[in-house]
């Protein structure tokens, strides 16, 4: 059985399409999920969003046992959560850190990512459409477990 790609989304991403559309655009999280599934080329996808750091960490733990790769938009937890970093350190496969905006063009508080320390790749600034690119890039990796 083919292992799924986990797409994990952190706090406030459930408000995509409504929250600061000048930064994040008009695409909703439901549309992002559809894009990820369409871009996965038939590979199974576990698509999730939470506003809870604890739940996000639990999902990373689940991914350790069941996922081929993780695409994670940790949102604010990117810059604050050493616990998330510790959980991601245990994941044996590729991890893509994803951000809708270019965090490096934003305020200084957004410039230090704990997640980047363990990420295989970092993608930022491509808008919500970038999720599809992240999924295609993840599925194209030769080191993905079956």
From TrEMBL:
The keyword Amino-acid biosynthesis applies. The keyword DNA repair does not apply. The record marks 19 as: Transition state stabilizer. Keywords: Amino-acid biosynthesis, Aromatic amino acid biosynthesis, Lyase. Pathway: Metabolic intermediate biosynthesis; chorismate biosynthesis; chorismate from D-erythrose 4-phosphate and phosphoenolpyruvate: step 3/7. It catalyses: 3-dehydroquinate = 3-dehydroshikimate + H2O. Gene3D superfamilies: Dehydroquinase, class II. GO terms for molecular function: 3-dehydroquinate dehydratase activity. The active site is at residues 24, 99. Substrate binds at residues 73, 86, 100-101. GO terms for biological process: amino acid biosynthetic process; aromatic amino acid family biosynthetic process; chorismate biosynthetic process; quinate catabolic process. Its EC number is 4.2.1.10. Catalyzes a trans-dehydration via an enolate intermediate. Homododecamer. Belongs to the type-II 3-dehydroquinase family. This is 3-dehydroquinate dehydratase.
């Amino acid at each position: 059985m083919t292992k799924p790609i986990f797409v994990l989304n952190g706090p406030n991403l459930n408000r995509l399409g409504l929250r600061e559309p000048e930064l994040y655009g008009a695409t909703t999280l439901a549309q992002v999920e559809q894009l990820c599934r369409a871009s996965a080329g038939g590979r199974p996808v576990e698509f999730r969003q939470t506003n809870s750091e604890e739940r996000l960490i639990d999902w990373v733990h689940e991914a350790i046992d069941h996922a081929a790769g993780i695409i994670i938009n940790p949102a604010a937890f990117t810059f604050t959560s050493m616990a998330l970093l510790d959980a991601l350190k245990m994941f044996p496969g590729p991890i893509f850190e994803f951000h809708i905006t270019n965090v490096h063009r934003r305020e200084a508080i957004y410039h230090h990512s704990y997640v980047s320390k363990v990420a295989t790749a970092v993608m930022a600034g491509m808008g919500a459409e970038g999720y599809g690119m992240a999924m295609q890039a993840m599925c194209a990796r030769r080191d993905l477990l079956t």
